[in-house]
Amino acid sequence: MAMVCGLQAADRAEITFADGRIFPESVTSTKNGDLYFGSLGQDSVYRATSKAAQAATWIQPKTNGLMTVLGVLADEKAGVLWVCASATGGRGGAPYVGETALKAFNLKDASFKASYAFPNNGLCNDVAVAKDGTVYATDTTQGRVLRLKKGAKELEVWAGAGGEFGPKGGVLDGIAVLGDRVIVNTLLTSKLFSVPVGKDGKAGTVSEIKLDNPITRPDGMRSFGKSSLLVVEAGAGGGRLSRVDLTADSGKVTTVKDGFPGGPVAVTVVGTSAYVLEGQLLAMMGRGDPNAKLAPFHATAVPVGKP
Protein backbone atom coordinates (compact mmCIF):
# COMPACT_ATOMS: atom_id res chain seq x y z
CA MET A 1 0.00 0.00 0.00
CA ALA A 2 2.85 2.40 0.82
CA MET A 3 4.30 1.85 -2.65
CA VAL A 4 0.95 2.59 -4.25
CA CYS A 5 0.62 5.84 -2.27
CA GLY A 6 4.16 6.82 -3.23
CA LEU A 7 3.40 6.33 -6.90
CA GLN A 8 0.26 8.39 -6.62
CA ALA A 9 2.20 11.15 -4.90
CA ALA A 10 4.89 11.15 -7.56
CA ASP A 11 2.22 11.40 -10.27
CA ARG A 12 1.09 14.79 -9.01
CA ALA A 13 2.86 17.27 -11.23
CA GLU A 14 1.76 20.19 -9.09
CA ILE A 15 0.28 20.90 -5.65
CA THR A 16 -1.96 23.95 -5.42
CA PHE A 17 -3.74 25.59 -2.48
CA ALA A 18 -7.34 26.11 -1.54
CA ASP A 19 -6.68 29.73 -0.49
CA GLY A 20 -4.91 32.81 -1.80
CA ARG A 21 -2.29 35.06 -0.15
CA ILE A 22 -0.94 32.25 2.00
CA PHE A 23 2.70 32.99 1.10
CA PRO A 24 4.00 29.49 1.91
CA GLU A 25 7.60 29.39 3.16
CA SER A 26 8.44 25.75 3.90
CA VAL A 27 7.44 22.23 2.90
CA THR A 28 8.00 18.77 4.33
CA SER A 29 6.67 15.31 3.54
CA THR A 30 6.09 11.83 4.89
CA LYS A 31 7.02 8.56 3.22
CA ASN A 32 3.47 7.93 2.05
CA GLY A 33 3.40 11.21 0.11
CA ASP A 34 1.56 13.58 2.45
CA LEU A 35 2.93 17.13 2.15
CA TYR A 36 2.83 19.83 4.83
CA PHE A 37 3.36 23.55 4.20
CA GLY A 38 4.14 26.38 6.59
CA SER A 39 2.11 29.49 5.69
CA LEU A 40 3.83 32.75 6.54
CA GLY A 41 0.88 34.73 5.26
CA GLN A 42 -1.75 32.97 7.37
CA ASP A 43 0.30 31.84 10.42
CA SER A 44 -0.95 28.33 9.80
CA VAL A 45 -0.05 24.94 8.32
CA TYR A 46 -1.50 23.40 5.15
CA ARG A 47 -1.57 19.73 4.17
CA ALA A 48 -2.04 17.85 0.91
CA THR A 49 -2.64 14.15 1.50
CA SER A 50 -0.95 11.58 -0.74
CA LYS A 51 -4.04 11.38 -2.96
CA ALA A 52 -4.68 15.12 -3.18
CA ALA A 53 -3.31 17.69 -5.61
CA GLN A 54 -4.57 20.61 -3.52
CA ALA A 55 -3.53 21.55 0.01
CA ALA A 56 -6.00 22.82 2.60
CA THR A 57 -5.64 24.25 6.10
CA TRP A 58 -4.58 21.55 8.57
CA ILE A 59 -3.51 23.62 11.59
CA GLN A 60 -5.66 26.70 11.94
CA PRO A 61 -4.14 30.21 11.97
CA LYS A 62 -2.66 31.37 15.30
CA THR A 63 -3.20 27.95 16.91
CA ASN A 64 -1.21 27.67 20.15
CA GLY A 65 0.71 30.84 19.46
CA LEU A 66 1.57 30.27 15.81
CA MET A 67 2.87 33.42 14.18
CA THR A 68 5.49 34.16 11.52
CA VAL A 69 5.37 30.49 10.52
CA LEU A 70 8.47 29.44 8.59
CA GLY A 71 10.05 25.97 8.76
CA VAL A 72 8.08 22.75 9.09
CA LEU A 73 9.52 19.24 9.43
CA ALA A 74 7.71 15.90 9.60
CA ASP A 75 9.39 13.62 12.15
CA GLU A 76 7.65 10.31 11.48
CA LYS A 77 9.67 8.36 14.04
CA ALA A 78 8.49 10.66 16.82
CA GLY A 79 5.04 11.20 15.32
CA VAL A 80 5.61 14.95 15.37
CA LEU A 81 5.28 17.85 12.96
CA TRP A 82 7.80 20.47 14.06
CA VAL A 83 6.78 24.04 13.28
CA CYS A 84 8.83 27.23 13.57
CA ALA A 85 6.93 30.16 15.08
CA SER A 86 8.54 33.52 15.73
CA ALA A 87 7.90 36.70 17.65
CA THR A 88 7.69 39.98 15.75
CA GLY A 89 9.73 43.08 16.50
CA GLY A 90 13.16 43.05 18.09
CA ARG A 91 14.83 45.26 15.48
CA GLY A 92 16.43 48.51 16.58
CA GLY A 93 15.60 47.77 20.18
CA ALA A 94 11.87 47.41 19.53
CA PRO A 95 10.14 45.07 21.98
CA TYR A 96 9.26 41.57 20.88
CA VAL A 97 5.61 40.67 20.46
CA GLY A 98 4.82 37.02 21.07
CA GLU A 99 7.39 34.28 21.52
CA THR A 100 9.84 32.59 19.20
CA ALA A 101 9.50 28.86 19.67
CA LEU A 102 9.74 25.45 18.07
CA LYS A 103 6.32 23.88 18.36
CA ALA A 104 5.39 20.20 18.22
CA PHE A 105 2.06 18.98 16.79
CA ASN A 106 0.79 15.43 16.48
CA LEU A 107 1.53 14.24 12.96
CA LYS A 108 -1.68 12.18 12.85
CA ASP A 109 -4.35 14.59 14.04
CA ALA A 110 -2.66 18.04 14.34
CA SER A 111 -3.24 18.16 18.09
CA PHE A 112 -0.81 20.32 20.04
CA LYS A 113 1.95 18.55 21.96
CA ALA A 114 4.52 21.05 23.23
CA SER A 115 6.29 24.37 22.71
CA TYR A 116 10.01 24.99 23.18
CA ALA A 117 10.99 28.64 23.52
CA PHE A 118 14.09 30.07 21.85
CA PRO A 119 16.32 31.66 24.50
CA ASN A 120 16.27 35.43 23.90
CA ASN A 121 13.78 35.00 21.06
CA GLY A 122 15.24 35.38 17.54
CA LEU A 123 13.74 33.98 14.32
CA CYS A 124 13.10 30.24 14.01
CA ASN A 125 13.67 29.51 10.33
CA ASP A 126 14.13 25.80 9.59
CA VAL A 127 14.34 22.41 11.28
CA ALA A 128 16.19 19.11 10.87
CA VAL A 129 16.14 15.89 12.89
CA ALA A 130 19.00 13.43 13.40
CA LYS A 131 18.58 9.65 13.56
CA ASP A 132 18.93 9.69 17.34
CA GLY A 133 15.95 12.04 17.64
CA THR A 134 17.92 15.21 18.28
CA VAL A 135 16.18 18.22 16.74
CA TYR A 136 18.15 21.17 15.32
CA ALA A 137 16.74 24.56 14.36
CA THR A 138 18.26 27.67 12.80
CA ASP A 139 17.90 31.13 14.30
CA THR A 140 18.23 33.59 11.44
CA THR A 141 18.52 36.91 13.25
CA GLN A 142 20.99 35.73 15.89
CA GLY A 143 23.03 33.39 13.68
CA ARG A 144 22.61 30.36 15.93
CA VAL A 145 21.78 26.69 15.67
CA LEU A 146 19.68 25.46 18.57
CA ARG A 147 19.35 21.88 19.74
CA LEU A 148 16.63 19.90 21.45
CA LYS A 149 17.90 16.58 22.75
CA LYS A 150 15.48 13.68 22.70
CA GLY A 151 13.44 13.90 25.89
CA ALA A 152 14.75 17.37 26.78
CA LYS A 153 12.45 20.06 28.11
CA GLU A 154 14.30 23.07 26.72
CA LEU A 155 16.18 24.17 23.62
CA GLU A 156 19.85 25.04 24.01
CA VAL A 157 22.26 27.03 21.87
CA TRP A 158 24.39 24.44 20.06
CA ALA A 159 26.49 26.39 17.53
CA GLY A 160 27.01 29.91 16.22
CA ALA A 161 27.07 31.85 19.49
CA GLY A 162 30.59 33.05 18.63
CA GLY A 163 29.71 34.36 15.16
CA GLU A 164 31.09 31.29 13.35
CA PHE A 165 28.67 31.74 10.42
CA GLY A 166 29.87 35.25 9.61
CA PRO A 167 28.71 38.81 10.35
CA LYS A 168 25.12 38.81 11.56
CA GLY A 169 25.18 35.05 11.10
CA GLY A 170 25.09 35.50 7.31
CA VAL A 171 21.29 35.35 7.67
CA LEU A 172 21.26 31.69 8.68
CA ASP A 173 18.50 29.81 6.88
CA GLY A 174 18.29 26.17 5.73
CA ILE A 175 19.50 23.18 7.72
CA ALA A 176 19.96 19.44 7.12
CA VAL A 177 21.62 16.51 8.85
CA LEU A 178 24.03 14.29 6.91
CA GLY A 179 25.51 11.48 8.97
CA ASP A 180 27.51 12.90 11.86
CA ARG A 181 27.34 16.53 10.81
CA VAL A 182 24.83 19.33 10.51
CA ILE A 183 24.85 21.42 7.33
CA VAL A 184 23.48 24.97 7.28
CA ASN A 185 23.29 27.68 4.64
CA THR A 186 23.31 31.47 4.75
CA LEU A 187 20.89 33.43 2.61
CA LEU A 188 22.80 36.72 2.64
CA THR A 189 26.35 35.47 2.05
CA SER A 190 25.34 32.42 -0.05
CA LYS A 191 27.49 29.89 1.77
CA LEU A 192 27.26 26.35 3.13
CA PHE A 193 28.77 25.42 6.48
CA SER A 194 29.46 22.06 8.10
CA VAL A 195 29.21 21.49 11.84
CA PRO A 196 30.45 18.08 13.04
CA VAL A 197 28.53 16.38 15.83
CA GLY A 198 30.92 15.06 18.45
CA LYS A 199 30.50 11.72 20.20
CA ASP A 200 29.29 13.71 23.20
CA GLY A 201 26.76 15.48 20.99
CA LYS A 202 28.53 18.82 21.18
CA ALA A 203 29.23 20.93 18.11
CA GLY A 204 32.70 20.65 16.61
CA THR A 205 34.59 23.31 14.69
CA VAL A 206 32.48 25.07 12.08
CA SER A 207 33.96 24.98 8.57
CA GLU A 208 32.84 26.47 5.28
CA ILE A 209 32.14 24.01 2.48
CA LYS A 210 34.08 24.96 -0.63
CA LEU A 211 31.84 24.69 -3.68
CA ASP A 212 33.00 24.16 -7.27
CA ASN A 213 30.25 26.51 -8.47
CA PRO A 214 28.56 29.27 -6.47
CA ILE A 215 25.09 29.08 -5.06
CA THR A 216 23.03 32.26 -4.84
CA ARG A 217 20.74 33.13 -1.94
CA PRO A 218 20.08 29.56 -0.82
CA ASP A 219 16.89 29.01 1.14
CA GLY A 220 15.33 25.68 2.07
CA MET A 221 17.31 22.45 1.66
CA ARG A 222 16.96 18.78 2.50
CA SER A 223 19.36 15.88 2.76
CA PHE A 224 19.35 13.58 -0.27
CA GLY A 225 20.88 10.20 0.45
CA LYS A 226 23.97 9.89 2.65
CA SER A 227 26.15 12.64 1.19
CA SER A 228 24.07 15.00 -0.93
CA LEU A 229 21.74 17.95 -0.52
CA LEU A 230 18.91 19.40 -2.56
CA VAL A 231 18.97 23.19 -2.26
CA VAL A 232 16.68 25.87 -3.66
CA GLU A 233 18.29 29.15 -4.69
CA ALA A 234 16.19 32.27 -4.80
CA GLY A 235 18.82 34.48 -6.43
CA ALA A 236 19.89 32.29 -9.34
CA GLY A 237 18.27 33.63 -12.51
CA GLY A 238 14.60 32.85 -12.17
CA GLY A 239 15.28 30.62 -9.19
CA ARG A 240 16.59 27.07 -9.31
CA LEU A 241 16.87 23.70 -7.65
CA SER A 242 20.41 22.41 -7.23
CA ARG A 243 22.01 19.21 -6.02
CA VAL A 244 25.17 19.46 -3.95
CA ASP A 245 27.30 16.32 -3.60
CA LEU A 246 29.58 16.59 -0.59
CA THR A 247 33.01 15.14 0.08
CA ALA A 248 34.56 16.24 3.38
CA ASP A 249 34.49 20.07 3.19
CA SER A 250 34.00 20.42 -0.56
CA GLY A 251 30.91 20.21 -2.72
CA LYS A 252 29.98 19.72 -6.36
CA VAL A 253 26.98 21.80 -7.44
CA THR A 254 24.71 20.58 -10.23
CA THR A 255 21.64 22.42 -11.51
CA VAL A 256 18.62 20.10 -11.45
CA LYS A 257 16.09 22.60 -12.78
CA ASP A 258 15.89 26.36 -13.11
CA GLY A 259 13.10 28.78 -13.89
CA PHE A 260 10.99 29.24 -10.74
CA PRO A 261 9.74 32.83 -11.14
CA GLY A 262 7.72 32.82 -7.91
CA GLY A 263 10.92 32.56 -5.87
CA PRO A 264 11.74 29.04 -4.63
CA VAL A 265 11.73 28.85 -0.84
CA ALA A 266 11.74 25.15 0.03
CA VAL A 267 12.05 21.59 -1.25
CA THR A 268 11.04 18.13 -0.10
CA VAL A 269 11.43 14.67 -1.62
CA VAL A 270 8.67 12.14 -2.27
CA GLY A 271 9.79 8.96 -3.98
CA THR A 272 11.90 10.02 -6.97
CA SER A 273 10.42 13.52 -7.18
CA ALA A 274 11.32 16.72 -5.41
CA TYR A 275 8.56 19.25 -4.77
CA VAL A 276 9.83 22.82 -5.14
CA LEU A 277 7.71 25.42 -3.36
CA GLU A 278 7.45 29.00 -4.64
CA GLY A 279 6.53 31.56 -2.00
CA GLN A 280 6.20 34.92 -3.82
CA LEU A 281 7.66 36.47 -0.67
CA LEU A 282 8.89 39.61 -2.44
CA ALA A 283 5.26 40.54 -3.07
CA MET A 284 4.48 39.98 0.59
CA MET A 285 7.32 42.31 1.57
CA GLY A 286 5.98 45.04 -0.70
CA ARG A 287 8.63 44.79 -3.39
CA GLY A 288 7.81 44.94 -7.07
CA ASP A 289 4.59 46.20 -8.63
CA PRO A 290 1.99 46.66 -5.85
CA ASN A 291 -0.79 46.32 -8.41
CA ALA A 292 0.52 43.09 -9.89
CA LYS A 293 -1.78 40.15 -9.47
CA LEU A 294 -0.36 37.24 -7.52
CA ALA A 295 0.04 33.98 -9.38
CA PRO A 296 -1.64 30.95 -7.80
CA PHE A 297 0.63 29.49 -5.12
CA HIS A 298 1.99 26.06 -5.97
CA ALA A 299 4.68 23.43 -5.51
CA THR A 300 6.08 21.79 -8.63
CA ALA A 301 7.27 18.18 -8.91
CA VAL A 302 10.77 17.78 -10.37
CA PRO A 303 12.23 14.32 -11.19
CA VAL A 304 15.40 13.75 -9.17
CA GLY A 305 15.76 9.97 -9.28
CA LYS A 306 17.43 8.15 -6.41
CA PRO A 307 20.38 9.54 -4.43
Please provide a written account of the structure.
- With 307 residues, the protein is mainly beta.
- It has a single domain, classed as TolB, C-terminal domain (Neuraminidase).
- It contains two helices and 25 strands.
- Strands 2-3-4-5-1-25-24-23 form an eight-stranded mixed sheet. It has a five-stranded mixed sheet with strand order 18-22-21-20-19, with no helix packed on it. A four-stranded antiparallel sheet has the order 6-7-8-9, with no helix packed on it.
- A hairpin with a 5-residue loop joins strand 2 and strand 3.
- The radius of gyration is 18 Å and the shape is globular.
- The two termini are 23 Å apart.
Note the topology.
Elements: H1 2-11, E1 14-17, E2 24-29, E3 35-39, E4 44-48, E5 54-59, E6 72-75, E7 80-85, E8 101-106, E9 112-117, E10 124-129, E11 135-139, E12 144-148, E13 156-159, E14 172-178, E15 181-186, E16 191-196, E17 207-208, E18 210-211, E19 218-224, E20 228-233, E21 240-247, E22 250-258, E23 264-270, E24 273-278, H2 281-284, E25 298-303
Parallel strand pairs: 1-5, 18-22
Antiparallel strand pairs: 1-25, 2-3, 3-4, 4-5, 6-7, 7-8, 8-9, 10-11, 11-12, 12-13, 14-15, 15-16, 16-17, 19-20, 20-21, 21-22, 23-24, 24-25
Short description:
With 307 residues, the chain is mostly beta strands. Helices cover 5% and strands 46% of the residues.
Q: Which stretches of 5+ consecutive residues score pLDDT under 50?
A: 1-9
**Distance N to C terminus:** 23 Å
Tell me the strand order in the biggest sheet.
Answer: 2-3-4-5-1-25-24-23
Radius of gyration: 18 Å
Percent strand: over 45%
CATH H-level name... which superfamily? Answer: TolB, C-terminal domain
Shape designation: globular
Highest CATH level, the class? Mainly Beta
User: How many DSSP H or I helices?
Assistant: 2
- Name the CATH architecture: 6 Propeller
Q: What's the rounded overall pLDDT mean?
A: 92
Please give the largest β-sheet. 8 strands, mixed
What share of residues is helical? Answer: under 10%
CATH topology: Neuraminidase
Strand pairing plus helix content: what structural class? Answer: mainly beta
Number of strands: 25
Total of domains: 1
What is the string of helix and strand elements? HEEEEEEEEEEEEEEEEEEEEEEEEHE
